[in-house]
Specification:
CATH architecture: 3-Layer(aba) Sandwich
Number of domains: 1
Largest sheet: 8 strands, mixed
Strand content: 15-25%
Strand order of the largest sheet: 3-2-1-4-5-8-7-6
Radius of gyration: 15 Å
CATH class: Alpha Beta
Structural class: alpha/beta
CATH topology: Rossmann fold
Helix content: 25-40%
Number of helices: 5
Order of helices and strands: HEHEHEHEHEEEE
Shape: globular
CATH superfamily: Vaccinia Virus protein VP39
Amino acid sequence: MRVIAGKFRSRPLRSLRELDLRPTSDRLRETLFDVLTAGNPQALQGSVWLDLFAGTGAVGIEAVSRGAAMVYFVESSKRAADLINTNVKSLGISDGFRILQQPALQAIAELDRQPVKPHLIFLDPPYRSKDAYSETLERLGNSELAQRSLVVAEHERRFDPGEGFGYLRRIRKLNQGDASLSFYRPE
């Protein structure tokens, strides 16, 4: 696993086999960022991200590498949160991120009470945790946090998280191999 592009291009990221992590593949991350930048490599400059179920931190680190100003990594597992910290430190990243070691729903509620205005919210719960998709998307779809955000959910291709949640509506679904990305925007 590596950083695809930007400031930290080709730098390796660590994962831990003993943790139950399924990092977003390099290929799917590259596709996600190609869609987000749509030919404009500067599109992410100064953006604010919320990386829910962050795991290794690969998606949020990719965002930092491509110019994001701030990434909130949300991960409930202490060992995975420590791994994210190890990965950002190995790249020499000292600011522009915050690691919240807590469940996603708790972090959404906490950040909703703060002046955080993410441009993009990425969520990638464990594939077997089907309820985590609907619970998280429903919470986001009824929060202040996502009112101006693009929300992207990574999921198994054969699983459909749903078309709409609160004020969020799916605008695109992109399939790649066994995985899919569902893109949601506020109505």
